């Protein structure tokens, strides 16, 4: 009887892990995850932001300082008495309204044509059947790898020979091709559902109707990204407008700053130079500030097909 009772007695259960130890382990893992997120994500982001933003902030503050505060041996972080005298002097030396009008006109017309060409070219490369499509796309990829400075001399010889020096069309024409916009839009168009376009084709919609009514509306973020990048590049373009224009009345804003070049040897004129640079940069920063979400959405949309 005693032997039977001994064999039927259940084995003692294994001791459970203490709950406080498991909680401490989970808290430790959460702290490690937070630390890795800060070191691997936020810290590089903050450093990159400071590297980009601090020179711009220093330029804006410098445009509000006096010449003595700018060239002082001791660093003056903030202007003692902020003043807009540098902006007034820069406006007196350079016709900023005329330069602003030239930049706006060239940017809107040139950028608009480039965006339209990028949309239609990308649509043709994806949805239109024609020979040598892959060869043409390979040529576009090659154009992305060629620096634009290579074409400066041929473009100048051609445009100047046609009488395009110191003209708006001479500034706009050579840059109408946009390999970046065509490539980005093509990659996005490849991610669109083919069933929608096939249904529209069965309903009798032509290529233009499909492009305007279907492809463009559902591709708005990507098109907005291409448009913004194109407009910013057109606004900031410096080398080609500098080469093709010599008349002060035809210069764009970045080129117009060269009219202040006679001030570079005078250290007391640094606030004037900074004020001119701020006038060029601020419009682009304002546009980017309001439309940055469209840029991010357009660059990430279609990244995973």
UniProtKB/TrEMBL annotation:
Keywords: Cell membrane, Membrane, Transmembrane, Transmembrane helix, Transport. Its main location: membrane. The chain crosses the membrane at residues 34-58, 105-128, 135-156, 168-185, 211-232, 270-291. Gene3D superfamilies: MetI-like. Residues 1-11 have a biased composition (Low complexity). The keyword Transport applies. Residues 1-29 are annotated as: Disordered. The keyword RNA-binding does not apply. It is a multi-pass membrane protein. Coiled coil: none annotated. InterPro entries: MetI-like, MetI-like_sf. GO terms for cellular component: plasma membrane. CDD domains: TM_PBP2 (cd06261). GO terms for biological process: transmembrane transport. Residues 100-291 form the ABC transmembrane type-1 domain. It comes from the Bacteria. It is found in: Cell membrane. PANTHER family: ABC TRANSPORTER PERMEASE PROTEIN MG189-RELATED-RELATED, SN-GLYCEROL-3-PHOSPHATE TRANSPORT INTEGRAL MEMBRANE PROTEIN ABC TRANSPORTER UGPE-RELATED. Belongs to the binding-protein-dependent transport system permease family. This is Carbohydrate ABC transporter permease. It comes from Propioniciclava coleopterorum.
């Amino acid at each position: 009887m005693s032997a039977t009772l001994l064999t039927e007695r259940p084995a003692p259960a294994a001791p459970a892990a203490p709950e406080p130890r498991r909680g401490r382990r989970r808290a430790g893992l959460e702290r490690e995850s937070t630390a890795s997120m800060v070191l691997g994500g936020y810290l590089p982001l903050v450093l990159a932001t400071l590297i980009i933003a601090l020179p711009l902030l220093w330029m804006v503050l410098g445009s509000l300082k006096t010449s003595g505060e700018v060239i002082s041996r001791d660093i003056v972080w903030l202007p003692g008495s902020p003043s807009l005298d540098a902006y007034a002097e820069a406006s007196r030396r350079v016709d900023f309204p005329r330069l602003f009008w030239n930049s706006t006109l060239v940017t809107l017309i040139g950028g608009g044509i480039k965006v339209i060409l990028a949309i239609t070219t990308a649509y043709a490369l994806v949805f239109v059947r024609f020979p040598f499509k892959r060869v043409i796309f390979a040529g576009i990829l090659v154009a992305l790898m060629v620096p634009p400075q290579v074409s400066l001399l041929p473009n100048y010889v051609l445009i100047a020979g046609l009488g395009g020096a110191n003209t708006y069309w001479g500034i706009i024409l050579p840059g109408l091709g946009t390999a970046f916009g065509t490539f980005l839009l093509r990659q996005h168009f490849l991610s669109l559902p083919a069933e929608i376009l096939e249904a529209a084709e069965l309903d009798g919609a032509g290529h233009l109707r499909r492009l305007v009514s279907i492809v463009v509306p559902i591709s708005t973020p990507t098109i907005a990204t291409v448009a913004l990048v194109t407009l910013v590049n057109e606004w900031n373009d410096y080398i080609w407008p500098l080469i093709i224009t010599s008349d002060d009345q035809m210069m764009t804003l970045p080129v117009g700053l060269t009219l202040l070049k006679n001030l570079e040897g005078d250290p007391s004129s640094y606030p004037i130079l900074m004020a001119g640079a701020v006038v060029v940069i601020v419009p682009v920063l304002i546009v980017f500030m309001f439309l940055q979400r469209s840029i991010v959405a357009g660059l990430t949309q279609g990244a995973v097909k």
